[in-house]
Amino acid sequence: MEKNLLARLEDLVSKAMGNDFSHGYPHIVRVRSIAWDIVDHIGIDIDGVLLDVSILLHDLGRLIGEPHAYYSVLFAKSLLQEHGLDKEFIDKVVNAILYHSYNYSRRYGIKPLTEEAKILSDADKLDALGVVGFLRVFHYSWLNGRSFNETIKHFYEKIFNLYKLMHYPYTRAKAIELTNITKETLNRLLSEISTASEKMM
Fold this sequence. Notes:
The protein has 2 domains: 1-115, Orthogonal Bundle (Hypothetical protein af1432); 128-201, Methane Monooxygenase Hydroxylase, Chain G, domain 1, CATH 1.20.58.1910. The protein contains 10 helices and no strands. The chain has helices spanning 2-17, 25-42, 48-57, 68-82, 87-100, 102-107, 115-126, 130-144, 148-157, 169-200. α2 (25-42) crosses α7 and α7 runs parallel beside α10. It is globular, with a radius of gyration of 18 Å.
């Protein structure tokens, strides 16, 4: 049942979300890899099916819009009830999905009920950092009409503060390392733009 459930969800999510670099299935694959790397390093017992299901479904609501965590939960409840999962399991998935969202969890005071929710949150935020995270921010901006100045502001207001939200020493250290890479990459871009602008004057 567990392998069958995961295989069905993988197939559904990969087809539904497509290859969008920012929030499509490639993002799901990266978050899943990061999450299991976290599990390997922090050395705690977790429910692997709960973690994988939460990861697979956490961004599905983006197919509808914002708040994507809310819509992801609607999809998750329907799909998991259809597959006969019990209410306790579904409630844990719902909590993990709602908690992972930077905006939704803060707006509504969502707290993690499980280690799996914490791991999903950390993994999702780690994918927003480093060179991958840098590219994701600009890719999202291009697709959604966010200006260059708004994009730079987003780095300083959100991205560079994500390390503060990590739950484990390992993920915080990783986040700080990746944040430094993100800052270096952004500074290099701003320097090149500044140089090009000076030459035009």
